[in-house]
Amino acid sequence: MELKQYDLIIVGGGPVGMFAAYYAGLHQLNALLVESLSELGGQVKALYPEKDILDVAGYPSIKGKDLINNLQKQIDNFPIEIMTDMTVTNIKEDSDGYILQTKNKDFYCKKVLLATGNGSFSPRKLAVDNIEQFENKNLWYFLPSLDKLKDKVVLVAGGGDSAIENAVLASEYANKVYLVHRRDAFRALPFNVTRLEDSSVEIETPYIITDLSNKDSKLKVTLKVIGEEETKDILVDDVLINYGFTSNKGTIDQWNVQLEQDHRAIKVASNMESNVNGIYVVGDASTHPGNANLIASGFGEAITAITEIAKSTHPEKNMAMHSTSIHLSD
């Protein structure tokens, strides 16, 4: 069977993959964007739609869901093909390009751009008995619709940036918000810690959650200090657990192409090309000297990779190298 051919296939539809697709359109590449989830946006859309993103140039602050919507509008300027609910199970070399295999069909392309982030992800769960009876009812691992928190009492558990940001955001809607962390110090940006201290959030440290139970239509959360016996109870309506997420990049290890890795990230050169000629990697999936795992730096890496791909795929074309010389239409 003859496979449909593309100049480029982008694997991963998070913010960086979406921006790479847009930039591929600017360079008039015949590109396909493949995403394993049912919609584009990656973790930002699935887990942090209400989170304030602070590292995108030109936006003092932008909600995760609004950033994804804007990226989609950028892509819509071009005939970029998009396929969701499609996981790449293998990549193998073929003549002067690559065959990407999925459970549904195979594709051929000249170049591959991996923007897979941290791979598939799942939340680190709260380790208490009978947790299943509360999950997705009044215990959450990502911030639910803010309307659901209106006039409620909410407890957020965690000590990182996401926990603090979610606690501060929830305090703008809920009647009361507690933030519980096992240490007195937070592992978050000083900016976020200052926001927390200036907010109405009540800080409960150094405590861990040891038990959950129902009481008078509320959720009773039992807290204790590590190494001590005395406990305290707090009655709340909802609990938000922000202990981070575990990722799985195991699929990459099963591909025919052997990509050099360092601590589960793929090593790339300054042009974002991996050790395999024609396969480029951007965003959290890549590692190189001086890289930072930020959306903003991922956007810059996407520009570098797409420009390199465009030049090598169509050397006969003059490539626009400045933003003022790039146009949406001829």
From TrEMBL:
Nucleotidyltransferase in keyword set: no
InterPro entries tied to this protein:
FAD/NAD-bd_sf, FAD/NAD-binding_dom, Fd--NADP_Rdtase_type_2, Ferredoxin-NADP_redctase_2
Answer whether the UniProt record assigns the keyword Transcription regulation to this protein: no
Domain of life, per UniProt, equals Bacteria
Query: Which cofactor does the UniProt annotation name?
Result: FAD
Q: What Gene Ontology terms describe what this protein does at the molecular function level?
A: ferredoxin-NADP+ reductase activity; flavin adenine dinucleotide binding; NADP binding
Where is FAD annotated to bind?
35, 43, 48, 88, 121, 284, 324
Xref: Pfam families: Pyr_redox_2
Any idea where the FAD/NAD(P)-binding domain is? 6-291
What are the UniProt keywords, alphabetically? FAD, Flavoprotein, NADP, Oxidoreductase
Annotated cofactor note: Binds 1 FAD per subunit.
**EC number(s) per UniProt?**
1.18.1.2
Quote the catalytic activity from the record.
2 reduced [2Fe-2S]-[ferredoxin] + NADP(+) + H(+) = 2 oxidized [2Fe-2S]-[ferredoxin] + NADPH
Q: Which family does it belong to?
A: Belongs to the ferredoxin--NADP reductase type 2 family.
What PANTHER family does UniProt report for this protein, alphabetically?
THIOREDOXIN REDUCTASE 1-RELATED-RELATED
Summarize subunit and interaction data from the UniProt record for this chain. Homodimer.
Q: What is this protein called?
A: Ferredoxin--NADP reductase
